[in-house]
Amino acid sequence: MQNPYQNAMAQLDKVVKVKKFDADFIASLRQPNRDIRISIPVKMDNGSLKIFEGYRVEYNNALGPYKGGIRYHQDTEINEVKALAFWMALKCAVTGIPMGGGKGGITVDPKNLSKKELEKLSRGWVRGLSDILGPHKDVPAPDVNTTPEIMAWMTDEYRKITGDKTGATFTGKPIEKGGSKGRGPATGLGGFYVFDTLRKNLNLPTKCTVAIQGFGNVGGNAAHIFTKNGHNVIAVSDSKSAIFNKDGLDLEKVEAHKKSTGSLKDFTGAKNITNEELLELPCDLLVPAAFENVINIENVEKIKAKAILELANGPITPEADEILFKNKIPVVPDILANSGGVTVSYFEWEQNLKKEHWTEEKVFEKLKKKMENASKKILEKSKISKTSLRMGAFILALERIQEKS
Ligand code: NAD
Q1: Is the dihedral of CA 320, 321, 325, 331 positive or negative?
Q2: Residue 86: CB within 6 Å of ligand 1?
Q3: Helix or strand or coil: residue 25?
Q4: Which long-range contacts (CB under 8 A, 24 or more apart) does 266-274 make?
Q5: Among the residues of 206-289, which ranges form H helices?
Q6: Best residue for ligand 1 mutational test, from 84, 217, 367 (most atoms within 8 Å of Cβ)
Q7: Paired strand residues for 286
Q8: Nearest residue to 307 via CA among 159, 200, 226
Q9: What is the pLDDT of residues 137-148, one digit of tens each?
């Protein structure tokens, strides 16, 4: 299997076969503007010194300041961060927000750190990168395993170093520390608005059965939002377990079970299955909301869902994507489906700079409009070029970035 950056470049190779772009422009998109690796020394609770590796990739800023989350994961490495930064550039472009693409990370399993160590590590990431960050330069946000609390530590560290009073350098902050209402569920909700706009074109029924891989910020919120809107969430999973009930899951009870046992496993209202089995369930909509490359050449022919909504970044490899297209299983691509998060992050940045506080209603209304517009434009592009929604989204994004390059 290729690394996520090779996958991202394979997508770029594919789009230029569907639509002609200026060759120099495409060449400029084959590498990030800069990628930075830092060492972060942390004095651990036992008195020892541990050095962690941190990253920030600034991919493209033709449309505005670099924007993109920070991932904490034991498998995080530079190629993953580069791919995620590239997709961020395209994502901002498809939603029509004036921001570019960036991404950050630290190679660490945060579950192995105490809260004190996690705070030191997070502040260390900011100290290593404060020169390149800033409300008009580079604006990070949360991603896998990074939380509003971590964003608050980072904002505080940045303020201490630079004196910045806008609080607009990090988004995804707690509301009382300058966060936006609605940022928590924004990615899942944005994904739902996209799905709702495209549902008829995806040939899906008004009430869908939905299987969701991942039960974190994105997958957990999506599960609630789909249920609230009359759909039937039949399976969810986390890193260790997956559960399934063909009649639907009682999410409140699932959450209570996960809270008390630390896992989804052995929930009384469902059957234990594996993460692999979840992906292969017969259902109307499959929602990968965890990690990259989970649908690949090994399992793609076993996918029985009628459509896929990519809430995770890069969950389908390019080879598997081709096969899904041939098998007429439509895929709503990540750069559209999960762009609700960065859209509300942009709203947070705007509110911080203007010293405003919008109501949740206003945030959701603006989010809905952006998601509907982007979905319709991408559908149109894919129809005109007789191609997939992913290629439609790439065409729209590249046209917009090229115009400003
Ligand atoms: P999170 O850390 O809150 O949740 C991740 C979930 O995935 C957890 O439930 C975890 O148990 C599960 N998981 C981990 N390893 C797994 C595995 N091998 N198989 C199945 N499940 C596994 O992270 P998140 O913020 O929900 O992000 C999930 C995905 O959505 C990532 O691809 C991320 O880049 C993408 N995304 C997040 C946002 C955001 O606003 N948080 C925005 C856009 C895209």
Answers
A1: positive
A2: no
A3: helix
A4: 267/243, 269/245, 270/235, 270/243, 270/244, 270/245, 271/243, 271/244, 271/245, 272/241, 272/242, 272/243, 273/235, 273/242, 273/243, 273/244, 274/242
A5: 217-228, 251-261, 275-279
A6: 217
A7: 211, 308
A8: 200
A9: 999 999 999 999
How many of the other CB atoms lie within 10 Å of CB of 21? 17
CA 80 – ligand 1 centroid, Å: 14
Q: What amino acid is encoded at 170 in this protein?
A: F
Distance, in Å, from the CA atom of 353 to the CA atom of 331, rounded to the nearest integer, reads 36
What does the alpha-carbon distance between residue 21 and residue 6 come to, in Å, rounded to a whole number?
A: 20
Three-state SS for 313?
A: coil
**What number does the ligand 1 atom closest to the CA of 238 have?**
11
User: If you count them, how many residues does the chain have?
Assistant: 405
Q: Extract the tokens encoding 258.
A: 């996960």
Residue 103 annotated among the catalytic residues of the structure: yes
3-class SS of residue 26: helix
- The active-site residue, picked from 67, 82, 103, 306, is 103
Q: What are phi and psi of 354, to 5 degrees?
A: -95, 0
Mean pLDDT, rounded, for 96-108: 98
The rounded distance, in Å, linking the Cα atoms of 322 and 179 is 39
Taking CA atoms only, the protein residue closest to ligand 1 atom 31 is 312
Q: Does residue 251 carry a pLDDT above 80? A: yes
Q: Give the pLDDT score at 2.
A: 85
Average pLDDT over residues 5-14: 96
Contact status, residue 218 vs residue 187, Cβ threshold 8 Å: yes
Bridge partners, 104 (sequence order): 56, 70
The protein residue whose alpha carbon is closest to atom 42 in ligand 1 is 341
Dist. CA 19 → ligand 1 center (Å) = 32
Backbone angles phi, psi at 338, to 5 degrees: -105, 20
Query: What are the pLDDT digits (tens) for 171-206?
Result: 999 999 999 999 999 999 999 999 999 999 999 999
The residue contributing the CA closest to ligand 1 atom 19 is 239
Percent of all residues in the chain with a pLDDT value above 70, rounded to a whole number: 100
Is the model's pLDDT at 1 over the cut of 90?
no
Atom of ligand 1 nearest to the CA of 339: 43
d(CA 305, CA 343): 28
Residue 315 CA: nearest ligand 1 atom is 32
